[in-house]
Amino acid sequence: MRTAHRTTPPTVTGTGAAGTPHGHGTAPDEAGLRAHFEKVIADDRKIEPRDWMPDAYRRTLVRQIAQHAHSEIVGMQPEANWLTRAPSLARKTILLAKVQDEAGHGLYLYAAAETLGVHRADLLDALHEGRQRYLSFINYPTLTWADTGALAWLTDGAAIVNQVPLCRSSYGPYARAMVRVCKEESFHHRQGFDSLWALTHGTPAQRQMAQEAVDRWWYPALAMFGPPHHASVHSEQSMAWRIKRFTNDELRQRFVDICVPQAELLGLTPPDADLRWNDDRGHYDFTPPDFDELTRVIKGDGPCNRQRLAHRRRAHDEGAWVREAAAAHAAKHRTPHHGPHPAATTAPATADEATADEAAA
Ligand SMILES: [Fe+2]
Ligand SMILES: [Fe+2]
């Protein structure tokens, strides 16, 4: 583990638009730093990388942002499978753009994690060794072309519901990364809807292919919001720190409420006989996902876990020459004032922590 250590005590810098509560030249004690941190959170302002933060807050962010970053890059695989088999040049171009966007999301998020003092190489090691996880839906197969549409409409749609509140997350770099990610996820979601629209307005066989794909992806998408709130290990504290704003259950309900009218427009039926509008609640009632299955898939026993991870490791190994060339280029052009990587105080999350909360939010 390449974990560096701070050589100087962390300080309150006031970069979180919070100002410093301490006079110049005085080393603030931990109680003062903690009080300032709590006030920034309570005032709904942002914590920035150079601000003091409790170790547990830093660890939670590293776990969540790393899991999110891993999900973006491993999440390229199910659709990449269809790039060479897209039914038209336009569909191929759209899918290629989407898959490239996901790589970019990974880049923003690894960069955001590095502001917390961890190294991208260590996070990737943790992914490849199974110590950190990625979202469970990625471990399901895309059996037909319609799966690319259903996957994007449902899972990118679920990602938006999860991630829009993260644009207001208390950690500045994460919140800012989310703004751009959400704009691009919106395109992903719409192109998925558009792809399904084409199929549902096509031949009976195409319509059936779209319905079967929705049957496969409905529950993996619902499971993306993680376990119920009462069983979610990290939710309470993450909400207190305003890293996340809503419970897994609230977000799952919001997603169902948004999706059902869209499914009606498409002429597709979610695979849930108990799905119906509840006038009293003002929400749709629905059957929740199988959380035992979710746990099994998170722990590595889904239909494609082994394949996805093996492919990721292979891609990483085969890309070693690119990283070496980039490092050599950077070394050649490094100016003397460029120092080593910022020091860190915290190692990446453990496997146990990573498995506990499925939702990236
Ligand atoms: Fe993404
Ligand atoms: Fe996406």
UniProtKB/TrEMBL annotation:
Segments of this protein annotated with the region Disordered: 1-30, 326-361
Residue stretches of biased makeup (Low complexity): 6-28, 342-353
One Pfam match: PaaA_PaaC
Composition bias, Basic residues: 330-340
InterPro entries: Aromatic_CoA_ox/epox (IPR052703), Ferritin-like (IPR012347), Ferritin-like_SF (IPR009078), PaaA (IPR011881), PaaA_PaaC (IPR007814)
NCBIfam families: PA_CoA_Oxy1
Name under which the protein is recorded: 1,2-phenylacetyl-CoA epoxidase subunit PaaA
